[in-house]
Specification:
single chain, alpha+beta, six-stranded antiparallel β-sheet, two-stranded antiparallel sheet, 8 strands, globular
């Protein structure tokens, strides 16, 4: 009988421990509204950040509003500073990749160690670029599916970084 009471008390006092990893701490997202073609925008970003963004296979992300659509994807891995920089189109025809920020034509995503001051400098430099209408920092905490989106982005990044390099003869 005592054993049964102890077991019942344990059930009442059991607490579940869950672990939630928030990816947004590692990322900065800058929304860009522009009439520039993606390759011209990429060229401007490469000049500002001193990078070499390269176009890769289009990125596909499924949400309740978007299923199986492809969005332009550019990538640069800054090995020296341990940063990854992505440029994604946020729009494909009439579809929006992240529907909580429909005003953004492109998303500049920076993963790694970038200070808030450096982000503000990048935003300021982009705003001075002709044919860029507006540039803004995205509040990732207001976007419900942000962790899922960033996880998919990381998995996509890993998929092309693990591909064997072609050997030239």
């Amino acid at each position: 009988m005592v054993e049964r009471q102890t077991r019942n008390k344990m059930k009442k006092n059991d607490k579940k421990i869950s672990f939630v990893y928030d990816l947004t701490d590692e990322y900065h997202i800058i929304g860009i509204c522009s009439h520039l073609k993606e390759y011209k925008l990429c060229w401007n970003i490469n000049k500002i950040l001193n990078t070499n963004l390269s176009k890769l296979e289009d990125f596909s992300f499924n949400t309740k509003n978007v299923t199986g659509e492809n969005f332009s994807f550019f990538y640069y891995n800054d090995h020296n500073n341990r940063n990854n920089i992505f440029l994604l189109s946020n729009k494909n025809d009439n579809l929006v990749l992240l529907d909580k920020i429909p005003e953004a034509d492109f998303l500049l995503i920076i993963k790694g160690v970038f200070s808030e001051k450096r982000i503000e400098e990048v935003i300021s430099a982009l705003k001075k670029t002709s044919n860029i209408l507006t540039v803004f920092s995205v509040n990732m905490n207001k976007i419900k599916e942000m962790n899922t989106f960033l996880t998919e982005l990381e998995l996509y990044q890993m998929s092309f970084e693990e591909r064997p390099k072609k050997i030239r003869r």
